[in-house]
Specification:
Strand content: 15-25%
Number of strands: 9
Order of helices and strands: EHEHEHEHEHEEEHE
Largest sheet: 7 strands, parallel
Radius of gyration: 18 Å
Shape: globular
Distance between the termini: 27 Å
Helix content: 25-40%
Structural class: alpha/beta
Number of helices: 6
Strand order of the largest sheet: 3-2-1-4-5-6-9
Length: 250
Amino acid sequence: MSHWVIVGASRGIGLEFVKQLVARGDNVTATTRGDMSKASKLWSLAGSSDQGTCRLLECDVKSEASISAFARDLASIHGTSTSIDYVVINAGILKYPNSSSPNSPSLMRSSSFADFADHLHTNTIGPILVAQKLLASGVPIGSILFMSSDSGSATKFRAFEDGFAAYAASKAALNQALRHMAAELQRSGSQTTVNCLHPGEVATDMANVPVDWEVEGIISAEESVMKMIDVIEAKSGQMTGTFYQWDGQV
């Protein structure tokens, strides 16, 4: 039985992680932002399972105060004598369109300062601060996994993705930041590994946007998460600072 922390678990991929992990008997701490009383699907998992356990905490990745409070709460509940096996930082947004060009050829519009900043705060800065605060809390952590995207890949640039500039930039920044985190932890002698995952083209509410190209290889959240759990556990302790796809490809 493993202990998982899922940050950003109220819907989509995060909620599916909680469902599958609790169903197989693991202990899960899941977070949602804002009013936790509205997270009805998570509460049903927290209250009805006779297999694994699910504890709910609040964490808004756009608020440093909320992140700090979450790290303190987790340390207070969990203690420092036993480790958390896996932390999956899944919280993120996609506001479409978010083009970098004022003359984009289709239905796109250029990003405002606020839109671009919102992507960076939610997809980059907040997740990195969550990891930093948890690492500083004294709770031993085996692996930290950031939910990223191939849209932010420097080696697999997706030139056709009009209207994804701010989202792609925020994920590219996340990928670079976590590589620095992984290298710094390794030099310090820490046993915690830090990696990121591309979940695939997953059919979720966040991904349900009207794009001008055909999205190929769409998979369900159930299939994506099932494969990602396999990858996370198979790669645990082996690599750090690495970008994995949902199917295990690097």
